[in-house]
């Protein structure tokens, strides 16, 4: 298994400057995590978002993985996905040891 740190996702109540809207997921997100020194992804979820409520209340840590399956099997709980975003990307959120972890699989 190989995992590469991507960002920390922090839910916010108010939109920050330079956020863009993701219509697929019904949420606002900063345009690039690289805009911030600490690789922070700010998220503001709208009503009707595809994501579970826990993501709007707690931060998560995101990792790019070669294969999400071993992490999914090892998870204490799968809270979202895995969902294919396109032919190359699969996304899932899990809970492991009380931490919310985003698994971003890109092939």
Features:
107 residues; mainly beta; 2,3-Dihydroxybiphenyl 1,2-Dioxygenase, domain 1; 8-stranded mixed beta sheet
Structure description:
The structure is a single chain. With 107 residues, the chain is mostly beta strands. It has one helix and eight strands, in the order βββββαβββ. A hairpin with a 2-residue loop joins strand 7 and strand 8. The longest helix has 6 residues, at 69-74.
Element layout with pairings:
Layout: E1 3-11, E2 19-22, E3 27-30, E4 40-45, E5 60-65, H1 69-74, E6 77-84, E7 89-96, E8 99-106
Parallel strand pairs: 1-4, 5-8
Antiparallel strand pairs: 1-5, 2-3, 3-4, 6-7, 7-8
Query: What is the CATH domain class?
Result: Alpha Beta
Radius of gyration: 13 Å
- Uncertain residue ranges: none
Oligomer: single chain
Instruction: Profile the largest sheet.
Output: 8 strands, mixed
Overall 3D shape? globular
CATH architecture field: Roll
Strand content: over 45%
Short description:
With 107 residues, the chain is mainly beta.
């Amino acid at each position: 298994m190989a995992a590469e740190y991507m960002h920390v996702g922090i839910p916010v109540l108010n939109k920050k400057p330079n956020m863009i809207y993701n219509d697929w997921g019904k949420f606002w997100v900063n345009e690039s995590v690289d805009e911030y020194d600490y690789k922070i992804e700010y998220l503001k979820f709208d009503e009707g978002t595809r994501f579970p409520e826990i993501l709007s209340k707690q931060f998560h840590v995101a990792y790019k993985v070669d294969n999400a399956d071993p992490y999914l099997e090892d998870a204490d709980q799968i809270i979202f996905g895995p969902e294919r975003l396109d032919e190359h990307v699969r996304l899932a959120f899990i809970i492991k040891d009380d931490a919310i972890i985003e698994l971003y699989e890109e092939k």
